[in-house]
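From: lab user (bench 3)
To: helpdesk
Subject: output format question, protein + magnesium ion

Hello, I'm new to running complex predictions and I'm not sure whether the block I got back is the full result or only part of it. Here's what I submitted:
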Amino acid sequence: MATVKVEAKNLQKSFGMLDVLQGIDLEVTEGEVVCMIGPSGSGKSTFLRCLNRLEEPTGGQVIVDGFDIMDKKSDINKIRENIGMVFQQFNLFPHLSVTENIMMAPVDRKKMDKAAAAQKAQQLLKKVGLSDKADAYPAQLSGGQQQRVAIARALAMEPDIMLFDEPTSALDPEMVGEVLAVMQQLAKDGMTMIVVTHEMGFAREVSDRVVFMDGGVVVEVGTPEEIFGHPREQRTIDFLNKVL
Amino acid sequence: MKFFEIVGSAMPSLLQGLLKTLEITAVSLVFATMIGLLLCMMQLSNSKVLGVIARIYVDCMRGLPVMVLSFFIYFGVAQALSIRISSDVASVMTLALNAGAYLSEIFRGGIQAVNIGQMEAARSLGLPYGRAMRKVILPQAIRIVIPSMVNQFIITLKDTSILSIIGMVELTQSGKLIIARNFKSFEIWLTVGVIYIVVITILSRVSRMIERRMAVGNR
Ligand SMILES: Nc1ncnc2c1ncn2[C@@H]1O[C@H](COP(=O)(O)OP(=O)(O)O)[C@@H](O)[C@H]1O
Ligand SMILES: [Mg+2]
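Helpdesk reply: Thanks, we reran it on our side. This is the complete output you should expect:
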């Protein structure tokens, strides 16, 4: 039995009167890649953001690495060190160079010394294919390059889990591939990943399981083969007909 | 020839006054910056009470003419507490309280102008709120805020002239005193005006240099 890395139990989130998540249950085990698909506004981002408590859940439980993230005794900052996040808008720090972006958290949190952190940044940049951009500033990079730096920055904390919220949606089409390639490699290396995406090709090819969300609930979960090959729910079928 | 004689003989007193103006401005701004930061933190804090207090304070300072505030402190507070407050102390208090309110609004605006995604990215890496502020938000906010901050500094420098009313011998008051002796209004006020313009222009140039230096690499 593989270890459960992330578990949502009856997870609920409302913004005022709006019930965005209406009881989500999901377990993600070590090394698993789960892609979340669904129409815009269905609550995918909110779900992901509840997992590292960028949003406060209003009901249910989230357990990351055995820690209940809402528990007063858990240190959310410590938990976040182990659960990296990549955003649609990259959110690189514009006042820091690429290397400084990557080094910042390890130096600040893990008290890594600067030389070691810089070396680590260089390794990570190599991994995402940007060795030559170490001294560039975010504004000097293309969207695809920025997103690869953002992935490297998240990896610098050596998380066990990575969350991706539509990492390629803000990119020009010709840059989508380079980012997906990095993510695919990461999956191959055994990273536990939860990926919100509209890239159905990626979901089909890379994920172990696909979750289809609509209207704040999980409508259907299955292997890519099941979801894309023989979807059971009418809502899934309708959605796939629209996007494929 | 006459003109330069008049200006020349007035110059030592005027420069003395200018020095006082700069001193009072500098000290006031140090306190104003601290007050501004404190008020800004109060407004951004989770505490509703602190936020309301800060907002009321800012509204009061906005609504109050500097001259009235200086009278209130120099005469009013002094009388109520039966103490003598020197015009220097009253001046610094007046300007610091006033500029502190405006600076807090400038700081708050700067922090809020930084994209919310920056805070989220920093927090998602495990940085606590304070560290995220310190390492990610403030460095960006400072760049945004510098022009308005310098603008406020200049306003405060000019406001020192109002404090001649409570007897502080700064640049404007020095001019007044000289004219009381020599009756040369035109020459002296022209000179006083030019001194203000020159000093403030130098200040703006320096600030623009700092701005440009800081902008390197950003955006
Ligand atoms: N901070 C917020 N305040 C109010 N409503 C929000 C907030 N964030 C998201 N929502 C709403 O929650 C719903 C789900 O949003 P989201 O999770 O972003 O969906 P998705 O990522 O699937 O497109 C939407 O109706 C959105 O308007
Ligand atoms: Mg979304």
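A quick orientation on your result: Chain A has nine helices and ten strands. Let us know if anything else is unclear.
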